[in-house]
Design a protein that fits this description.
Layout: H1 11-19, H2 28-41, H3 46-59, H4 65-69, H5 73-79, H6 89-104, H7 108-114, E1 121-122, H8 136-147, H9 155-164, E2 168-169, H10 176-181
Parallel strand pairs: 1-2
Helix pairs in contact: 2-3, 2-6, 2-9, 8-9
């Protein structure tokens, strides 16, 4: 099957590309998980995060926002010793504060999808080098999330998040997934 050029040959990346990336989701649990994973990805490659995703699910209580919001400093310190995750104190503290911010949102799904007017934005890029790293919608999302108390939600992270959750569909035209996902 023809895939986007970024996908490569790693089976984990292929599975992610073929089954998750660009697939619209309104599941609040999935949206929250991806928001935290994108924050952990900051400055690193996405494959690094994908390889650690299952461990994150284990140690971050299945991405349960209510439990993460109560994460103690001692628990963060213990997580800093876990080689199965990205051991970055600021990112772990952000997971806790982002959980708290998430719980304060009246309707996080509606808020997040509002930046694309509630429906996926279908792009038609021929090549991966045409896909932007940031868009005005991602900049607006970043501003709104920061205002709501989130961290590690810059515009580049927000655009990657929008791609991951299917708010924007950036599979290139030569990728089979483009044809499959172009009609939401």
């Amino acid at each position: 099957m023809p895939r986007c050029a970024w996908c490569g040959t790693d089976p984990l990346y292929i599975d992610y590309h073929d089954h998750e990336w660009g697939v619209p989701t309104r599941d609040p649990q999935v949206l929250f998980e991806f928001l935290l994973l994108e924050a952990f990805q900051a400055g690193l490659s996405w494959i690094t995060v994908l390889r650690k995703r299952e461990r994150y699910r284990q140690v971050l209580f299945g991405f349960d926002a209510e439990r993460l919001a109560r994460l103690s400093d001692e628990e963060i310190e213990a997580l800093m010793q876990d080689p199965g995750i990205i051991r970055n104190r600021r990112k772990l503290e952000a997971a806790r504060s982002n959980a708290r911010a998430w719980l304060q949102l009246e309707n996080p799904v509606e808020l997040l999808w509002s930046f694309v007017e509630g429906r996926p934005k279908i792009n038609c890029f021929e090549r991966i080098d045409q896909v932007p790293a940031v868009t005005p919608e991602a900049e607006a999302m970043s501003r709104a999330l920061k205002k709501a108390g989130f961290s590690f939600v810059g515009p580049t992270i927000c655009y990657a998040y929008m791609q991951a959750c299917g708010m924007v569909m950036d599979h290139t035209l030569d990728c089979d997934r483009h044809a499959q996902l172009k009609t939401p």
